Amino acid sequence: MKYIQSSVEQVRLLERFSNKSTSGTLHLTATHLIFVESNNAATTAAQEIWILHHHIASVEKLSLTTSGCPLVIQCRNFRVVHFVVQRERDCHDIYSSLLRLLRPVSYDELYAFSYNPKQNEQQREEGWQLIDLGAEFERMGVPCDRWQLTDVNRDYKICETYPRDLYVPITASKPIIVGSSKFRSKGRFPVLTYFYQEKKAAVCRCSQPLSGFSARCLEDESMLQAISKANHNSRFVYVMDTRPKLNAMANRAAGKGYENEDNYSNIRFQFVGIENIHVMRTSLQKLLEVVGSRFLSVNDYLLGLESCGWLRHVKAVVDAAIFLTKAVTVEGASVLVHCSDGWDRTAQVCSLGALLMDPYYRTIKGFMVLIEKDWISFGHKFADRCDQLDGDPKEVSPVFTQFLECVWQLTEQFPQAFEFSEWLLLQIHEHVHSCQYGNFLANNQRQREELQLGDRTHSLWAFLLREQQNYLNPAYCPTYADTHPVLEPSTLPCHFKFWRNMYHQFDRSMHPRQSVLKNVLTLKESNCKLEDTIKDLEARLQKHGISPPTPDPQASPRDQRILPTRPHSLILEAPLSRKEAQRQQEEEEEEVGEEVTECCSDTERTVEGSSGTERKESYSDLQGTYGAKAEPAVVSLEFGVARMTC
Amino acid sequence: MEFAELIKTPRVDGVVLRRPFLPTVEGTLCLTGHHLILSSRQDNTEELWLLHANIDAIEKRFVGSLGTIIVKCKDLRVIQLDIPGMEECLNIASSIEVLSTLDSVSLMYPLFYRPMFQVIEDGWKSFLPEDAFKDLESMTEEWRLSDVNKDYSVCSSYPPLVAVPKDVDDDTLRKAAAFRHGGRFPVLSYYHKKNGMVMMRSGQPLTGTNGRRCKEDEKLINATLRAGKRGYIIDTRTVSVAQQAKARGGGFESEANYPQWRRIHKAIERSSILQESLIKLVEACNDQSHSMDRWLSKLEASNWQTHVKEILTTACLAAQCIDREGASVLVHGTEGTDSTLQVTSLAQIILDPACRTIQGFQALVEREWLQAGHPFQQRCSQSAYSNSKPRCEAPVFLLFLDCVWQILRQFPCSFQFSQHFLVLLFEHTYASQFGTFMGNSASERSKLNLSQKTVSLWSWVNRPQEVERLSNPLYEANCLVIWPSVAPQSLLLWEGVFLRWKRSSRCLDEAYDEMVHIIQYNKELQNKVNNLRRQLGAGEQED
Questions:
Q1: What is the mean pLDDT of residues B162-168?
Q2: What is the ipTM of this complex?
Q3: How near does any CA of chain B get to the CA of A558, in Å?
Q4: What are the Cα distances from residue B514, in Å, to A520, B408, B500, B504?
Q5: Sequence-distant (≥ 6) Cβ neighbours of residue A417 within 8 angstroms
Q6: b/e for A355-376, b at 16 or more Cβ within 10 A?
Q7: A507 annotated binding-site participant
Q8: At how many degrees (to 10) do helices B396-410 and B419-430 cross?
Q9: Residue A75 is a catalytic residue
């Protein structure tokens, strides 16, 4: 890999939502673009921003201004940075280097293959063995007397984009499978993805049938028949076509289409109307344009939210998952879900449905299993959708981001049902695009095996599980699953909210300055440590022959306050205590002078700007006060990334 | 008039109460002079006690002989009563209609209410202007307490005692009052200890079309400026609205006559527009349609969030002038009883940590709203459901509470109280057993002799168990100025009020309880560790 190392001094970083700027040095390394603020005040550590090349979605060089040459960088994790480089030549150098770097053409160039977290081979292998989908199907109760493991796809002969191990009804013979796969787009025939043990109802997935206007396939019909027969609870199978009806009809002209109810006995066919990847891509782009504009008025914001349609699409996905869940858990019917190719909307609906039905998927480990199963193994095209290699821009789409958002909307409605907090969702999103771990590389299992990812890269799940205390939801109640095994979310539109922490993750001025989540999580961790301390102290007391005392309300709790380190991540920077807040105050006071002239010329700007100023990354170094010294100062935002680089 | 005349059917059996997300209750419905009561007459089932004053509107429906009354409350709750018997239903409905719209102050419930709790500290005496002034005196000697308004003759909406610059005599005040709308001459609202800057509020100056001036008014406000310093006048109206006010005898301070002051116009809407906004917002929240586009466009059309942003922005501006620019500020709109108070009270929340405590917030409401003459009775006699044409109703105070909630959301550890306190205040401004929010000004309250005849809300709130309930477990005193973000993405719909009855709050409540539990458990553990350490230390010394 070519190694580029260059630095440009006196670069200004403009704040996105105010008129503030900081100046510093821009460094370009083989993997990162790094901005280091010039350290003018000795007391405060300089702000640093690390941007992984893979995170960069676009680089734009704007026309030259009096102060320099502006460079705008948009990242896939929704960070937007605006630099002004003094000399046009330097700007051009960075620009052209970045253009080369951010369009890798082969997988070998991706960060995952050079990333080395200083682990030994054994640890790395164990990381990859953490999630075992065979065990997951066993957990669901499969194989059983009605469902079995088939080896038809052992060599990816029947379907290239499916995993090797597939589960089908016992009565589905090999000829039926083969025949059915020939009648389905990309050979993606109906297979089991979730088994609802309580009612023996199955959630199956596939792609659209190649029915055209009149074609039929007896094997495919037998396949659906077999799925139906495998469930004695219901006389019919729901077939959910997740597309809008018009789209499905248009597909018929291309020899594809949807199931004709006359040809399939015992099916109930249903369209649910989720739009396609292109609509979703445009919708998110519009959303980002709206929320990215400066001095946005409330009305433009709300009108923008409406016209971009993003929340409408999110709701459509949740609605579909609820339909699936009701069919399975209430009616006890089996459901076959498909869209066109069965790897975007189908993955969304199946996985979200399973999340509603099965409390296991609401745990940290279970959520990983769910993503591994419905997204990774069933061939959601992560490489194409996330633009990992320089490819067709029309293939890029935020389908997985949208899934994560649906999950977030659910966590907002059921704050006690999920073991994880939104930090986990944000971190997964970060790494789906970082190409730092092997999990999400390439488009399907077959390609991953060819790339030998298991031998050459590390697993994200191992990393996340090691750090899992950071992703815990302190309000999580494990017994919630007993009283609410199936979640029934409200789908009234007022319960769907804009996910500020995702789309404005790096725009700190917009976030609460104090984080409830962070505070409570800290306290909860401290509770565990205190419990240990108490045991220890009691044991020592016993040695001295003293029995444990009765509580004394006079004692000052503050002296003993134990504050564990928190991840230096994302939106989570907020002062923990007064001490931090006071330091912040000191910094704040230093900045008062700058604003004097602005006050009344543009009041709104100043008000927003003033909050922006104090929120400015000043917190990241404050973290250091609580014994985070083991981590070097560069631990800024992408903490996983930073760890590797130092 | 006897209540009995208004109640034709005082009791009906077999009435079914239906509420969203709560079990239906069947029982006996009773009407009293002030309450609608539904009791299942079984042990440990909840009874419904609804103040007639809380009822905003009712709707009747009939299917056969089964009548249904839909009761829409001022706290935005909607409940349904199924009443067997057409005649009973009609009687009940007409009684409710009359009882819920009684205009006579002497019939209001607070005058009949007898507290079932022991009053430890009389709330009527908790926040006297004299006491508040003592704090000021400890900080500065530049101000005095004037009793120029002791018989409410100078300004009917001001309290008898107001703080004014020491060098300005009562005569000057009288003349300045004649030059200000409603006699509301500039008075002290807030003294910023950090730099000695002040915030004042008043009514608009009565310059009229021919640009009248008043030397005394100029002298009064100039007396608050330090030598060589300029101040800011924040007019809560747009320039054009302020211009139009001249035609009706109002106006604004001209640069020529107030050269030491810089005027800034903001755009906080007048109260009638705010009421319309509330009605539209509540309508949007009650819309059962599942269309996202419809919801967002209705939310947008209500303009509620725009008002929140506008008010917060103006308050931030005032706070900024004082804290960052080191300048004194005068705030006014037209009357100086609505948008002015929103701005001055919110600026204090931002600037003054004391206002973020439970006691301090009460003092703020008392000082900046009740004493300052916000006409609560006029503003809160109807809420979002009422079918009658609004007269002077407007959710001015609710918007203030909403803004406080927004700041609370952004600084969840800096407030001693939780949102429960804000919701409680919202409820009590519209319907209450306490006399605190009765009347429109200090003078009206004193004429009604409310402090003798009614119980103060603060007497209730300041009992230990209530303080405990309203406390924010995450509170850690924060002595800083807190600057909220006013970006639209940072402002949220206040679900605790507007979606309160639209969803089952159980999940959220339980999560909140869990959080409280974690925090309390932490305190217990820390105490225990300290004790053990001390004991161990003592034990080791003995060894």
A1: 95
A2: 0.94
A3: 8
A4: 10, 20, 20, 17
A5: A359, A362, A410, A411, A476, A477, A480, A481, A484, A487, B507
A6: bbbbbbbbbbbbbbbbbbbbbb
A7: no
A8: 180
A9: no
Q: Which two tokens stand for residue B93?
A: 């409905």
| Contact call for A581 and B478, based on CB within 8 A | yes
Q: Tell me if A298 and B519 make a contact (CB, 8 A cut-off).
A: no
Report whether pLDDT(A640) > 50: no
Q: How many residues does chain B have?
A: 543
Count of residues for chain A? Answer: 646
Q: Using DSSP bridges, classify how beta strands B231-235 and B329-332 pair: parallel, antiparallel or unpaired.
A: parallel
Q: DSSP letter string over B408-471?
A: HHHSTTS-SB-HHHHHHHHHHHHS-SSSTT-SSSHHHHHHTTHHHHS--HHHHHTSHHHHHHHB
**Which residue out of A75, A91, A204, A339 is catalytically annotated?**
A339
Interface of A with B in 472-511 (CB under 8 A): 474-475, 477, 490-498, 500, 504, 509-511
How sure is the predictor about B104, in pLDDT bands with cuts at 50, 70 and 90? confident
Rounded to an integer, what distance in angstroms lies between the CA atom of residue B379 and that of residue B391? 9
**Residue whose structure tokens are 């709203």:** B369
Of A448 and A582, the one with more pLDDT = A448
Helix axes A310-329, A345-357, angle to 10 degrees: 50
Place A577 in a pLDDT band, splitting at 50, 70 and 90.
very low
Of A495, A512, A582, the CB nearest to B409: A512
Give the whole-angstrom CA distance, residue B397 versus residue B413.
Answer: 23
Q: What are phi and psi of B366, to 5 degrees?
A: -60, -50
What kind and span of H or E run contains A644?
helix A639-645
Cβ-defined contact of A537 to B474 (cutoff 8 Å): no
- Between CA A449 and CA A155 the distance in angstroms is 11
Residues 239-278 of A with CB under 8 A from B: none
Give alpha helix (H) positions in A293-338.
298-308, 310-329
Give exposure, A232-243, as e/b (b: 16+ Cβ within 10 Å).
eebebbbbbbbb
What percent of chain B shows pLDDT beyond 70?
99
Residue B132: predicted pLDDT: 87
* Burial (0-12, 13-18, 19+ Cβ within 10 Å), B537: exposed
Token digits for B296?
A: 């967002």
A131 is in an annotated binding site: no
**Residue A274 annotated in ligand binding:** no
For chain A, give percent helix, strand, coil, nearest 5. 50, 15, 40
CB contact under 8 A, B488 and A477: no
Nearest to B507 among A414, A606, A611 (CB): A414
Please tell me which of the candidates B292, B487, B539 has its beta carbon nearest to residue A608: B487
Tokens of A515: 């984080």
pTM of the predicted protein model: 0.90
- The answer to whether A423 is annotated as binding is no
CA distance A310 to B296: 12
Task: Kindly report the nearest CA distance between residue A405 and chain B, in angstroms.
Answer: 16
Within 8 A by CB and 6+ apart from B167, the residues are B223
H or E segment and range at residue A445? helix A445-450
Question: Is some CB atom of chain B closer than 8 A to the CB atom of A414?
Answer: yes
Q: Where are the alpha helices (DSSP H) in B336-395?
A: 339-351, 358-365, 376-379
Alpha carbon distance B447, A271 (integer Å): 68
3-state secondary structure of B262: strand
Residue A370 has pLDDT above 50, yes or no: yes
> What is residue B469's predicted lDDT score, i.e. its pLDDT?
93
- For residues A359 and A480, give the distance between their C-alpha atoms in angstroms, rounded to a whole number: 9
Alpha carbon distance B71, B74 (integer Å): 10
Q: CA–CA separation, B187 vs B129, rounded Å?
A: 13
| 3-state secondary structure (DSSP) of residue B321 | helix
Q: In this structure, which amino acid lies at residue A76?
A: R
